[in-house]
Design brief:
alpha+beta
Length: about 240
């Protein structure tokens, strides 16, 4: 058997064309294996997409601000997208914050002030973050700008009908949000806890709205689903 192998190698050595074909075949297979391994590694460790869903509280900071806003139950939805660099990720999100609301400054459009009502605040944020992996635990931090929508309640009194209509006055403001978090990897999903700081650049009732926000919830890995969708779209676009 060894003799046939030696004879085959000698024949290939003396036949340049056959030798080139063998070399090209081996190089092609090796390249294909390397490409497969690289693609698999990138898919598993880098191109990760997680859907975030959490609940928590937004705590207004400052004694003057607390006179207007009292925290209520809130939640967050978002998505984290890993980049080619393992430690860097994108983090777009939207926070839904609710507060008990007291009006202190009169509104020229309304005759009466309103107290013990409810105000809703929506913060759309576009953050970038850094992440460090420790076995099944990960620590991360993020920072980014956003836009906030504050719905302030107003009381419209209609004496002729003996009714009071509650209306919302919308205020729009640029915002920024920063924070830190930790997540724990379980089977197919992550548990996370996040503590952030949010700043609203437009004052509400003459107060600067700064909030400490706490959220806890789940992160679900949808990387494979995203890959399948991309493959289907790519396949449909091919001629």
């Amino acid at each position: 058997m060894r003799g046939f192998l030696v004879m085959g190698l000698l024949f290939a050595w003396n036949n340049p064309t056959l030798s080139a074909q063998i070399t090209d075949t081996l190089y092609y297979k090796a390249s294909a294996v390397d490409t497969l391994q690289l693609t698999t590694t990138d898919t598993l460790s880098r191109r990760k997409i997680h859907i975030i869903s959490g609940v928590g509280w937004g705590f207004p900071m400052g004694s003057d601000t607390k006179q207007v806003f009292t925290p209520k139950f809130s939640n967050i939805l978002g998505i984290t997208i890993s980049t080619d660099k393992k430690y860097l990720f994108w983090y777009p999100s939207i926070s839904f914050l609710s507060f008990k609301y007291n009006q202190f400054i009169e509104d020229a459009d309304y005759e009466y002030k309103i107290i013990k009502s409810r105000s809703n605040y929506y913060n759309i944020n576009f953050a970038a973050g850094l992440k460090k992996q420790f076995s099944k635990f990960s620590l991360y931090g993020y920072l980014g700008p956003g836009i906030g929508f504050m719905a302030e309640p107003r009381a419209e009194v209609v004496p002729e009908e003996n009714i009071v209509r509650i209306k919302n006055k919308l205020r729009v403001s640029p915002t920024w949000r920063t924070g830190i978090g930790v997540d724990y990897q379980a089977n197919g999903f992550f548990l996370f806890f996040e503590m952030g700081w949010s700043h609203n650049f437009v004052k509400i009732q003459g107060r600067t709205l700064n909030m400490m926000v706490l959220f806890v919830g789940l992160k679900t890995d949808v990387s494979r689903i995203a890959e399948k969708v991309i493959k289907i779209i790519y396949k449909d676009e091919r001629p």
